[in-house]
């Protein structure tokens, strides 16, 4: 029996079929069903009890964000990964606020998509680098310039955010596609720039100074 039961919610039939074929080749992933819109996705979750939903954003009847909110309200244990062509940050924020654990662009390599499904199934959050960059560009643009006072780079801010989320070095390395050694170097630079000596102090300073 395959470990991860996945429901695909996507209004384009060709994409639904492609995803079903590609992901169905994974030894630990079973595609238990597909949905053409958000409302159908909610009904299918109720009927099929998947572990995870691959959710398109723009669908008729009910969009992916609304469907995510509805699913997480009734079945909080079901993981949701938003899969879309849209890079607009407002959709990212809306989906993540709705409870989604991941946000991935449809251009992702099928093997990377399978890896992301496993990551989210294990309890991690997955945001691809393109999306993370857009999110940080937005946060940097609206920040109160505290970041520049400390001289933190965009990558250091990203690592600091993951530290604040309670992620371990190994998880941060996997998320950012870096080695653990590189992550440790980023953390050392962050400690130096913030004049702190451990994670707890870094998290407190980031909170006190409104770095996020």
UniProtKB/TrEMBL annotation:
Q: Which residues form the HTH luxR-type domain?
A: 145-210
Transmembrane feature ranges: none
* Record GO terms (molecular function): DNA binding
Q: Which domain of life is it from?
A: Bacteria
Keyword Transcription regulation found: yes
Could you tell me which SUPFAM superfamilies the record lists for this protein?
Answer: CheY-like
Spell out the protein name for this chain.
Answer: Response regulator receiver protein
Name the species this protein comes from.
Paenibacillus riograndensis
Q: What is the lineage of its organism?
A: Bacteria, Bacillati, Bacillota, Bacilli, Bacillales
């Amino acid at each position: 029996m395959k470990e991860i039961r996945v429901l695909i919610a996507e209004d384009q039939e060709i994409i639904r079929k492609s995803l079903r074929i590609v992901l169905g080749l994974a030894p630990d992933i079973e595609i238990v069903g597909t949905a053409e819109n958000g409302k159908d996705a909610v009904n299918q979750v109720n009927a099929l009890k998947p572990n995870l939903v691959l959710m398109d954003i723009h669908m008729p009847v009910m969009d992916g964000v609304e469907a995510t909110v509805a699913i997480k309200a009734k079945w909080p244990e079901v993981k949701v990964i938003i899969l879309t062509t849209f890079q607009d940050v407002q959709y990212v924020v809306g989906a993540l606020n709705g409870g989604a654990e991941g946000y991935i662009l449809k251009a992702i390599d099928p093997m990377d998509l399978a890896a992301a499904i496993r990551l989210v199934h294990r309890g991690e959050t997955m945001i691809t680098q393109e999306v993370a960059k857009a999110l940080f560009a937005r946060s940097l643009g609206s920040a109160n310039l505290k970041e520049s006072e400390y001289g933190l780079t965009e990558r250091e801010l990203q690592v600091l955010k993951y530290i604040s989320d309670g992620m371990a070095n190994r998880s941060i390395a996997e998320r950012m596609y870096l080695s653990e050694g590189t992550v440790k170097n980023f953390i050392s630079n962050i400690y130096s720039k913030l004049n702190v000596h451990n994670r707890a102090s870094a998290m407190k300073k980031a909170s006190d100074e409104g770095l996020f």
